[in-house]
Each structure stands twice: as structure tokens, then as C-alpha cells.
Fold:
Amino acid sequence: MNKKSVLSILALAPAVASHSYAESPGNNAGNQTDNRPNIILFMVDDMGWQDTSLPFWNQQTKYNRLYETPNMERLAKQGMMFTQAYANSISSPSRCSLMTGTNAARHRVTNWTLQKDKPTDRKSNLLETPEWNYNGISQVPGTNNTFVGTSFVQILKDNGYHTIHCGKAHFGSIDTPGEDPHHWGFEVNIAGHAAGGLASYLGEQNYGHDKNGNPISLMSVPGLEKYWGTDTFVTEALTQEAIKALDKAKKYNQPFYLYMAHYAIHVPLDKDMRFYDKYKKKGMTDHEAAYASLIEGMDKSLGDLMDWLEKNGEADNTIIIFMSDNGGLAAEPYWRDGQIHTQNYPLNSGKGSLYEGGIREPMIVSWKGTVTPGSRCNNYLLIEDFYPTILEMAGVRKYKTIQPIDGVSFMPLLTQTGNPSKGRNLYWNMPNNWGNDGPGINFNCAVRSGDWKLIYYYADGKKELFNIPEDIGEQHDLSQQHPDIVKRLSKQLGNYLRKVDAQRPIQKATGKPCLWPDE
Amino acid sequence: MNKKSVLSILALAPAVASHSYAESPGNNAGNQTDNRPNIILFMVDDMGWQDTSLPFWNQQTKYNRLYETPNMERLAKQGMMFTQAYANSISSPSRCSLMTGTNAARHRVTNWTLQKDKPTDRKSNLLETPEWNYNGISQVPGTNNTFVGTSFVQILKDNGYHTIHCGKAHFGSIDTPGEDPHHWGFEVNIAGHAAGGLASYLGEQNYGHDKNGNPISLMSVPGLEKYWGTDTFVTEALTQEAIKALDKAKKYNQPFYLYMAHYAIHVPLDKDMRFYDKYKKKGMTDHEAAYASLIEGMDKSLGDLMDWLEKNGEADNTIIIFMSDNGGLAAEPYWRDGQIHTQNYPLNSGKGSLYEGGIREPMIVSWKGTVTPGSRCNNYLLIEDFYPTILEMAGVRKYKTIQPIDGVSFMPLLTQTGNPSKGRNLYWNMPNNWGNDGPGINFNCAVRSGDWKLIYYYADGKKELFNIPEDIGEQHDLSQQHPDIVKRLSKQLGNYLRKVDAQRPIQKATGKPCLWPDE
Structure:
């Protein structure tokens, strides 16, 4: 960044002459109720579209019959299910898009982050990854390989919301300003830090700390010491702490924003013993029963929060948004049993893939009086859309950001007053090597345009074209049949990537960047 | 507060149209060094003007010879001593003025705060205290009996400073939004909460927690669990934690603001055994030797921070401000040995009093290249002046606040380029009953105007006039000799108090407010 850019960032906060003030509140700030809605964003980690008893497809699948998520069903009865809600294919890109409202192609945190200046890409023989933003995102300049942006949480906080972070953060690498949720506008931080995973779900294992209290890994969960040595599963510990924070929030007489960002259902697939036996009795393998127990433990947390809202008279004035950050893990045979890449059926592949299995998420929004109970929306949206939507939900109409906002508010979908998806393309870019192989995984980019989806592979220039409503499993590449559509979407994808200054892998053989999809 | 006022506060943060942004930082936020100075505000609790080996008077006193504060001497050699730096007479008014830049007469937190909706005033036979802001201060509206203001820390944070709170906060009552430093723009909070004191200095006593980890009082120090059961004095624990936070700050490549707000030297006078024996050998009583050990422990912390700056190459670019929040405790015979009210000699009285012993503080500022080493400033200033000064130090020239700012920057004093004290009056208002009796304590107000100081007692209308430079001990009331000055200052004091909507006690006999000083 140049000097001018640094200065313009620094100049953002102050807007008028010294010592200007709005009005003296005098001695009595009053205790009037602030009627703006509370907002809970319930974000699950690595949860696939089918990892629930709630059918997001047009028919019930075997996974819907296997998993038990009664509270997701309860939430769906109150609100709107989104059947085409998209994220990125892995965690960091999604969470950075969420926090900054920008597309991953623009923010360039296109693989997962952990340690400062240590890219996490697996080596590839053919391609070199570009200098992506492996230090993640930050609200302040000063760190290399970092995208700088204003978070919507900061804006909510500046507008009088009490802001609570609970669980997984994963915004910036260790020792960068983005690592700590407190640097993002969160007033409360429960157990969030740089890591995108966890060493252990188990209180008996001190969530990844030895008996002297020292972390055994960079993914040891911080801040839950009071549960160490107990049988409290981390999902439960986070829920109990979140509820304490809500009890406190209620006393503050402010609307609250709770980012309930579960570490579940990320590996390691520890067994949530409250639910494990039930799934074993269904005949599931150890790993798959553990996976199911993680899902139901997460679902219980959702129910506990809904119960709190009801008991505390806040249910009618609280928006709940349920979401996951990428598709279900399907590429790691160590963790998943059965044939790999099938665990998100009917979707193809899973986490890390630009096939639907990697990016399509179970999403629900409930908002009494605004969202029709038991409704369903089949229009598509993308994770960065949460940014302007949540600010609109909070009534924040004007705000300044350092970065441009790519997201589009989906409020018209919630109120059924319009369709912002119409005529809009969605874009993904993954010029990286995640670390697993599989269908649609690594070194590619994609565009969704109406019913069509084009995937372009940087390594060999291969293109695939799918009609998503007709072929949700992406089994039939129609690129040969529709060269005109391939050409049009390639052009749009190329134009978009260049416009947002996206990155491409480099061909090792030539040292040159791979071609754009329309080159 | 009326609806309009709430809305105007809420409208502060957003300033321009939706989605406006300054400039895209692109993918590389750079790692240029931000050359703005770091700022450490080293705030001691209840430290008197003479509780140091550094002579702030025009001669050395017995206290200067008794106490040992080599690091304050070291700091004074690098910077400027202020001999007439004022605060309020007790903690909450001072700290609320510091955080909001407003005079205590305006913010109305005129006694100490702790529990929500529980005023701490001792009952008086004659006077009723007004409905003061016993819930403290907050950045957001919604709580009764609370002054709402924007903190300079929030503004520093919004301008890219990394902000660290360490030690005593004492901004808002328990269960109000002001209780948590994270709600004030601090990104890091070490051991700060609603309480203005501490249950114990001792690691052996878990800083006031029982063996099960439960707090034994509302003043148990939070967040230092890792030192429990060790012999680490809380002053040392805070210092070690602050240094860890500075290590981290250095990695962030941001300028930092560290509010090093020691719990020392507030009661209970636990013995800091690193220094206690030395003072016993000087022949001091147990209490007085403990008091001295608290002072030297605090001084060691100052030295440790200065050492850190030197070792880390930050000494030349870091401003250190040393200050206390009110006068030394002299009114409690349980804690202080010898004749009470004399422990701030040559000043009269101590904490809680509007005599100099209650409000004059040891203050030092070092700033390489800006402040002349070993210099001394005899102009007066007041605690709320820190607000605009620190923002000016940080180069923040334009900022918005909810509240008017009463403080005046003392930058011209530091640079010896002007005298903002000239022609300026300072004001105090204490319409409360602190809890101890003594000279100049409770139910009074005062004005300092040039050499003169007028104190007005609400209960009986008594007025005292002192020439401070000639009578620093306030032993000679000159009100009879100078009725013209009394009249002029009474008028100025009355005008000021009415202008800022200050409060007065109520006469129980009549139910009417006490008279203004000029009535």
C-alpha cells in the first residue's frame, strides 16, 4: 500500500472538526428500550448441505434420515430455508468474505491461514501458488499479505450493538492484528483466536492443553479453563458461555449481535457422548457416528439459544441466521468412512471443491414479523451478502468502509419483495492447493450465472459447464454441447477476476501465470 | 435522554452514504512502519503528591526521603515534571473525566461507583445527595444514571492504535455497559472490571478468590488465574502481563496505547515483600512500611516498562505519562499511622478532600525530542485535559464525540510554546458524602483561578479562600481579607456549575437544594 492509501485509511474515522459533538446527553441517559432487533449468526464449521434431518433438496436423502437436528427443524418452521446459499469451499475465504463483505477473489485470502508468513499450501509439481493473503484480514494496515477491511461487526458496535464472539474466529494469522476478535469490533470474545480448527473437543483433554495448562498445539482452544478436567464437550462449553454473555447483554439494555461460531463439526471427530451411542445403534461406523454426534451437539446448542430467547422474552425481537462456512468434509479417508467424495450426496465432492458439495450450505433465517414462517427460498446468494444484509437488519443505512463491498443484501428475499439474485453472477476463485485431492478441488475458479455454472481449471485450461437445477450432482459436463455459453461465462469470469485484481497460479514450467479463463 | 438525543448518538458513527469507501488497499497492505508515537499512561491509584522520592515541591520533604522511587526519578530526568497537576479527590470522578474529557461537575459521576443502582454515599443527617450518576459512564445510551460519552481510547483505536488496558478500570457499575474496558475501545483487557479497588494483592490469596476459584468479594481481581497460588504480587503480575501485551503489540506493527492502571497503592495495604523489610528497617510501622512497599513495587513496574521500551527500540518513540487519580489516603486511621490528614504534607488532608492533599498529583511526561529532559512545569492542569492532549499526541486532529470536551490540551506546556493555563479557571464539584470525614472532605465545590482557590461548603455556605503559592498547606483562610475575590470567584464558580448543569446536595430540613456559591 502506498502512503496515500495509508493516510486515507487513517483519515476514515474522524469526519468533522475537532471537538464536535452531537448533543449533551446530560446526566440521565435514560433507560428507554432500544427496539432494534438482536441478531444471532449461528455459524457451523465444515457442515455439509445434507448434514441435517432438514431436507434442503427437493427430496429427503439418506443423510436427512440418518442425522437428527430437531432444532434446525424448529428454526425452519419459524423462518425461511435457503436452498441455494453459497460459501467458499474452505473456511478462511468464507470467514474473510463474511467479515469484510468482499469476494474471495478480491480479498485474496484464498486458502486457510494459521501462522504469520507461512502459507499453508501443499506443494504442487505443476503450479506455484501466487502470493496470496496468507496473513488473513485486518482492520488496520501494517502487515504484509493481509487484506485490510472494516468489519460489519465494528459498524454494529459503533452503532450501539453489544457484540459477542463465541467459538472459532480464524480471521488473521497468529501475531497479526486480525488474529483477535477484539480487534474486529467484538466486545466479548469467548474462545476465538487465529486457528481455524481445534486440538480437541474434550474437557477431559483440556481442549488441547496438557496437565500443566500448556497448549499442545496451535489449535488448542483458548479461554475455557473452567471446564478443564470435566466431561463438558466444547460445543456445550461454548453454549454455556454464550448464554452467560446473553444474560449479561440483557442487562446492558442494548441490542446484541452474537456470532455463535461453533468449532463443530470440524475434525478431529471426537465423540459427543451425549449422542454417540444413538448413532452407533443405527449401525454407523465409529467415525460416522462421531460425525453425527457432532452435528446433534451443535443442533442442541441452537436449541439452547432458542430456549434462552423464549425464556427471556427476546424470541420475537431476535433474528437467527443459520449457516455453514463450506461443504462437508468428504476428501479425507482417514476421517470419513465409505467411498470418499460422496458424503454430500446428491452434491458432488465436498470441502475444498467448487462442485456444489464444497460450497452449498444449509441456511435458515428466522425473523418474526418479517420472514414468513415455514417458507423456502430457492434463489442463490453468497457468503459476502451477509455483510450488507446484517447491517440492513440492524437499521444501519449509512456506513463507511475501507474496502468496496461486493455483497448484495438479501433482505428482498427475506421480505419476498424482490430478487437481487436475478441477473446476478456469483464468482469463486481458488488459485491454491488446499491439501487434499478430489473432484473440483484446487487451482480453479467458477461462475454461477442463472442455471449455469462454469468451472475453469488453471492447470490445463479445462472447462466444465453444468446446468445446476437439472444436474445438481454435476455429473454431466455440457461444455461441448454449449460452446456459446462456455464462451460467454468464460468472458464474464475473466472480466470479473481481472476487475477485482484476482490472482492466478503460476506455471512452474514457464514461470508465467496461468491463462485467464477467457484467454 | 429524549428520543432525538438517542438518535443523534446512534447517527454518529456512519457519516456518508452506504458502501462508501476510501480506496481499495489491494492485496498488499504493506508493512511500512507507522511512525506515530506509542503512548503509555501510567496511572497509579490513590498515590499522593509526596509518595515518592522525587520532590514535586520546592523542597525535599520527609516523605521524599522516606520513599524510594528510582524509576520516577529516571523518568523525570527524561521528561517534564508537573508540580500543579490536578485530579478529582476520589477515583471515579477522575477516571470518568479522563475517559470522557469532561469535568466531573458535568459528567456527574461525583462519588465512587460499584454496583448498579446502588449509590455508595454514606448517609448524612443534614444533606441528601442528589441523583448523581452512580452507574458511571458508558459509550452507549440505555442505562439510567449514566453519563454517555465517547472515550479517547475508542478514537485512538478507530485511528489505528492498538489499545491495551491493564489493571484498574472503574468506569461503570457492575452489569452496565461501562463496566468492561472492551466496551471503551480497548482491544486488550488485563484484569480490569467495574471495581475501583482490590480484595487482595497476593497471589497466595488468588487475588481474592477462594480455593475453588470463586471470588470472595466484588473487588476480587479478575483474569490473573495463572498467578494464583504463587507469591506474585498483583503489581508484578500486571506488569508481566502488560509486557506480554507489548511484545504482541510490537508484532502488530501498529502504534500502541497502554493504559497501565495499577491497583496499587489502594487499600488493603498488603505487604509487597520484595520491598517491605527495607522500610521496616527504616523504623516504619507495619502499615506505613507496607504503604512504602506498594509505592516501590509500583515504581519497579514503571522501570520494567521503561526497560522494555529500551530493549525493544521503542524508547525514543514512546510517550510516557505518569499520573495518579487522587490524593494519598490520609483519612482512615485503620490504615494510616500517625496523625491522620497529615500524610500528604506539606499539603493539607488527602483523598476525598478539595484541599490540595486530595487533588494535587505527581505527574511526569517524557517524550524524546519534544519534551525537554529534566524540565519542570509549574502551570496547572486538570485530569480531563489528558483527553485532548493524548489525541493531539497521536496526531488525531479531527474527531467526533457524543459529549462536549471540557479538557484543554496541555501540548503547549510540553513543547513550551504557550500557556493554556493562563486566564483559565479549574473547577471541582463534590455534592456527595464519600464516607470519611476530614478537612475539605464531602459536600463542597471549588475553583482555582490563578493563585487563588475558593472552596464552598454546601451544608452551611461557608467559603474559604487560599493563596496557593503562598500557602500550599491551606492553613490561612483569606476570605475575610479579600471579600472582592471571594465574590468574583463565587460568581465564576456558580456560573460554571449552572452552565454544565451540575448538581447540589439537598437540605433535608427543607427538601430544597443547597444554595449555589453565588446565591
